[in-house]
């Protein structure tokens, strides 16, 4: 069974902080390449000053943190978490991953992805899993593949809980940065009469469309567009949900306000706790009233209303 390796390159001065962030993504540890003190450590540990030429040519100014993601976890969610954390901490970095082939990942996750009960009305279920008892909940069938949004990540879970509490029959939903489409599809299952989902990534758009069909939704009830934020959206919605990152949400607040119906709700997540004050300020400045804060493991979801 293949694992996924994520490599994060950072200046050596940030190794300790960046390592702490990386350790939050996996329970079984990380591996760090740091050659900044190569000669001294070799002498202290191996008691020799003979060092391989290849090692001597290693980058001394940058360290590489290796994270290994097991087949049952979605590597995209780990990459999103690490990227958002390091960006918020102003740590310069580059990140990449060696994924197993897409067709392998699309099959591997199914062995471990189990039904997830969310809020009072939803259960997220892998498409091929035979759920014996939904406990009276709406069943949302998912095949996230390589797109973000399986329901396991804290930000997705927080948005689903907010939707479960907020969504009323007959409302309309706009899902910005839709990923797998999980949030807009959840809105429809919870009573929305219409949903629009937008993502800049072609794979996400394809996945969201497929998941919509899997749950019985297609145009005009469920429309998925490829685009940057809400550039192609021309009408107002009762509920707008954006599970992206803090900087994008800040830049999107004014647009969100203009696209929200009077009395409508803006649900925003993908926000780490350290960025909460500036995101909340931007949301209020746009004209929303922040009604609720939801927290889980360092992530925040804000539920705001257009009065």
Structure at a glance:
This protein is of the alpha/beta class. It has ten helices and 14 strands.
Mind explaining what this structure looks like?
With 307 residues, the chain is an alpha/beta fold. It has two domains: 4-105, Alpha-Beta Plaits (2-Layer Sandwich); 146-305, Vaccinia Virus protein VP39 (Rossmann fold). It is 33% helix and 29% strand. The protein has helices spanning 15-23, 38-46, 53-56, 75-88, 102-108, 154-166, 182-189, 202-214, 246-259, 276-286, and strands at 4-11, 31-33, 62-69, 94-98, 116-118, 122-126, 138-142, 172-176, 194-199, 222-226, 237-243, 260-272, 289-296, 299-305. Helix 6 packs parallel to helix 7 (182-189) and helix 9 (246-259) packs parallel to helix 10. The chain starts with a strand and ends with a strand.
Q: What secondary-structure arrangement, pairings included, does this model have?
A:
Blueprint: E1 4-11, H1 15-23, E2 31-33, H2 38-46, H3 53-56, E3 62-69, H4 75-88, E4 94-98, H5 102-108, E5 116-118, E6 122-126, E7 138-142, H6 154-166, E8 172-176, H7 182-189, E9 194-199, H8 202-214, E10 222-226, E11 237-243, H9 246-259, E12 260-272, H10 276-286, E13 289-296, E14 299-305
Parallel strand pairs: 6-7, 8-9, 8-11, 9-10, 11-12
Antiparallel strand pairs: 1-3, 1-4, 2-3, 5-6, 12-14, 13-14
Helix pairs in contact: 6-7, 9-10
């Amino acid at each position: 069974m293949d694992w996924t390796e994520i490599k994060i390159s950072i200046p050596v001065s940030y190794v300790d902080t960046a390592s702490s962030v990386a350790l939050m993504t996996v329970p079984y540890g990380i591996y760090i390449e740091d050659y900044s003190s190569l000669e001294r450590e070799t002498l202290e540990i191996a008691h020799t000053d003979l060092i391989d030429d290849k090692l001597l040519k290693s980058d001394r100014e940058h360290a590489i943190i290796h994270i290994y993601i097991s087949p049952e976890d979605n590597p995209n969610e780990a990459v999103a978490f690490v990227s958002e954390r390091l960006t918020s901490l102003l740590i310069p970095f580059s990140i990449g991953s060696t994924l197993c082939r897409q067709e392998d990942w699309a099959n591997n996750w199914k062995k471990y992805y189990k039904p997830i009960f969310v809020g009072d009305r939803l259960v997220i279920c892998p498409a091929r899993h035979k759920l014996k008892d939904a406990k009276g909940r709406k069943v949302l069938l998912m095949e996230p593949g390589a797109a973000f949004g399986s329901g396991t990540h804290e930000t997705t879970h927080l948005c689903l809980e907010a939707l479960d509490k907020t969504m009323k029959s007959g409302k309309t939903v706009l899902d910005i940065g839709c990923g797998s489409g999980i949030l807009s599809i959840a809105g429809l299952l919870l009573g929305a009469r219409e949903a629009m989902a937008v993502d800049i990534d072609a794979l996400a758009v394809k996945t969201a469309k497929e998941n919509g069909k899997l749950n019985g939704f297609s145009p005009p009830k469920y429309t998925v567009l490829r685009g940057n934020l809400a550039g192609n959206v021309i009408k107002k919605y009762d509920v707008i949900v954006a599970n992206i990152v803090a900087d994008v949400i800040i830049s999107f607040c004014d647009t969100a306000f203009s696209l929200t119906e009077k009395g409508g709700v803006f649900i925003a997540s993908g926000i780490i706790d350290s960025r909460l004050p500036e995101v909340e300020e931007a949301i209020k400045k746009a004209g929303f009233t922040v009604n609720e804060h939801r927290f889980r493991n360092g992530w925040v979801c804000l539920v705001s209303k257009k009065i």
